[in-house]
Amino acid sequence: MIESKGWNWEIVKDEREEFWKKPSMESYYLLNRWKSQDKKSFLDLGCGLGRHSVLFGKNGFDVSCFDISQDAINRTKQWAESENLYFDYKVGDMLELPYNNEQFDCILCRNVISHTDTEGMKQIVKQLDKVMKHGGECYLTLGSKDTWGFKHEDWPLVDENTRLRMEEGPEYKVPHFYADYNLVKELFSNFNIINVHQEIEYFAKENKVTESYHYHVLIQKA
After folding, report:
1. Which of 16, 44, 46, 57 is 20 to 30 A from residue 9's alpha carbon, by CA?
2. Would the pTM count as exceeding 0.90?
3. What SS3 state is found at 175?
4. Which segments of the chain are extended strands (E)?
5. pLDDT for 62-88, tens place per residue?
């Protein structure tokens, strides 16, 4: 199993910081879905700069923030407290979540859970199962094998599903696990899979448009 490594948030400043403080589009759907289900305890797994922690905290959820980066936790806490929001904060590795069994009603881990290799992914899925309540839900994203990153032959192959990202920036040398639809179903076979869809995002950089494919997965603990 490869050593876990998170984003280098210390180099994410100014305009990039503002981008990563804006909640993802689907987080608003999840917010309303989980409020309508009377869910309360929310884990922002891989909270980054706190964009989803603050959104859910402002809407009455009991928020726990978790990240491998101390800098990310510090900046999330600073932002939250400036909004008079007070959360639980923990720094650690997704391979061993420091929470009680069946602690959370809902978990969001967007662009986070795949920062490991295949064996690490299997371990993280077990950890999700441990900390979710029965009937609890988790929304997560996984890199797709259709995306350019998995096909990038200059990036070292860790195992049949994983490459090390070698692009300079906050994800330099961070492992990236990629899946196909059958692997998604296999990984989450012990859960009720409510929805799986592959989403395409387009990024413009240096006059080139890059397509990025991710699986968006909503699961429920049976």
Report:
1. 57
2. yes
3. strand
4. 41-45, 62-67, 88-91, 104-109, 132-144, 157-159, 162-164, 175-179, 191-205, 208-221
5. 999 999 999 999 999 999 999 999 999
